[in-house]
Amino acid sequence: MKILTGPLMPIVNAVTEAITVRGLHKRYKGHVAVDGVDLDVHRGEVFALLGPNGAGKTTTVEILEGFRKRTSGEATVLGVDPHDADAAWRQRVGIVLQSTGEFDDLTVREVVHHFAQYYRNADDPDAVIERVGLADKRGARTRVLSGGQKRRLDVALGIIGRPELLFLDEPTTGFDPEARREFWGLIRQLAAGGTTILLTTHYLDEAETLADRVGVLVGGKLVAVDTPARLGNRGTDGATVGWRTPDGPRQEQTDTPTAVVARLAEQFGGEVPDLTVTRPSLEDVYLRMIGAGE
Ligand SMILES: Nc1ncnc2c1ncn2[C@@H]1O[C@H](COP(=O)(O)OP(=O)(O)OP(=O)(O)O)[C@@H](O)[C@H]1O
């Protein structure tokens, strides 16, 4: 699709794109936090923004949420410039920030019911509490919740308005492995229901499991955008073929693993002992990218 810029961009691209960003810059008193980012997040996709501490993820996301002012560049979110966003736009967007809101003496149920009142099209609060796995804590005061349970409450508040677009900033930080898997199930359900999701995360397994596409931000620049399987030519470059010989294990690095396996099969006259073909993990390519960007 032709990408439009200028006055027509918000109108036309809003049909297929939940988010469009062109030449986004953010400077904090001489420090450049976001340095010319171009990005599209398609409607209905789960997009994960990766990057080391201080890369500019939160700044970018908070500009798109309408919470921070950009220095320059263009951005539209659901067809609207987030800087000019109004109450009607806020109804369509769900936000889960990094820091937890404090509601002290209110119960989980009270908080979720309270937030539901802000939305014209709110979901059933009790059903949402159930979906985020807090059913057995619905009567608990929020101050007694564990870190992971507070995070689930944040997610409940992010989705109570049935958002078209959900922002999740490091949603599973502090979750135990079981809670993380349950949360992934919840995100998949939301995505299957058509919600567009932009998440930031430091967990590469989370990005790999959830995201249709990932973007890697390094020093305020987006250095790569691709599917998790293809990022950094992961799917095509540099496979390692491993096998066992009577003298011990052997490995060969190759761009043509099929040819190596065929050669080995001929050499062994059939099955190759302990044959493995591995590609770089998402973590391998990510670490290479953030090293290369420094
Ligand atoms: N309000 C602010 N004033 C000045 N500098 C800021 C401000 N907010 C962020 N920064 C700086 O901008 C850069 C990007 O920060 P940002 O929080 O966007 O990074 P991040 O990728 O979200 O990091 P993390 O993974 O640690 O959350 C950092 O160098 C940070 O110190």
TrEMBL record:
<dbReference type="GO" id="GO:0046677">
    <property type="term" value="P:response to antibiotic"/>
</dbReference>
<feature type="domain" description="ABC transporter">
    <location>
        <begin position="19"/>
        <end position="244"/>
    </location>
</feature>
<dbReference type="GO" id="GO:0016887">
    <property type="term" value="F:ATP hydrolysis activity"/>
</dbReference>
<keyword id="KW-0046">Antibiotic resistance</keyword>
<keyword id="KW-0547">Nucleotide-binding</keyword>
<keyword id="KW-1278">Translocase</keyword>
<dbReference type="GO" id="GO:0005524">
    <property type="term" value="F:ATP binding"/>
</dbReference>
<comment type="similarity">
    <text>Belongs to the ABC transporter superfamily.</text>
</comment>
<dbReference type="InterPro" id="IPR017871">
    <property type="entry name" value="ABC_transporter-like_CS"/>
</dbReference>
<keyword id="KW-0067">ATP-binding</keyword>
<dbReference type="GO" id="GO:0005886">
    <property type="term" value="C:plasma membrane"/>
</dbReference>
<keyword id="KW-0813">Transport</keyword>
<keyword id="KW-1003">Cell membrane</keyword>
<protein>
    <submittedName>
        <fullName>ABC transporter</fullName>
    </submittedName>
</protein>
<dbReference type="InterPro" id="IPR027417">
    <property type="entry name" value="P-loop_NTPase"/>
</dbReference>
<dbReference type="InterPro" id="IPR050763">
    <property type="entry name" value="ABC_transporter_ATP-binding"/>
</dbReference>
<dbReference type="Pfam" id="PF00005">
    <property type="entry name" value="ABC_tran"/>
</dbReference>
<keyword id="KW-0472">Membrane</keyword>
<dbReference type="InterPro" id="IPR003439">
    <property type="entry name" value="ABC_transporter-like_ATP-bd"/>
</dbReference>
<dbReference type="InterPro" id="IPR003593">
    <property type="entry name" value="AAA+_ATPase"/>
</dbReference>
<feature type="region of interest" description="Disordered">
    <location>
        <begin position="234"/>
        <end position="255"/>
    </location>
</feature>
